[in-house]
Amino acid sequence: KLSAKPTLNKCSLSSDNVTKEDNLINLDHGDPTVYESFWGKMGEKCTLVIKGNDLMSYMSDTRRLCWFLEPELEGAITRFHRVAGNAAVEDRYVVIGTGSTQLYQAVLYALTAPGSGAGPVPVVSAAPYYSQYQAETDLLCSGLYKWGGDAYAYDKDGPYIEVVTSPNNPDGNIREAVVNRSGTGEGKVLYDLAYYWPQYTPITRPADYDIMYFTFSKSTGHAGSRIGWALVKDEEVARKMTKFIELSSIGVSKDSQIRAAKIMGAICDSYQDLKSGNSENFFEFAHQLMAKRWKRLREVVAEVSEVFSLPKYPKEYCLFHGEFTESYPAYAWLKSNESIEDCEKFLREHCKIAGRGGRRFGVDPSYVRVTMLSREEAFEQFLQRLLSVKDIKKRAL
Ligand code: PMP
Question: Which fold has domain 25-40+279-396?
Answer without folding.
Answer: Aspartate Aminotransferase, domain 1 (3.90.1150)
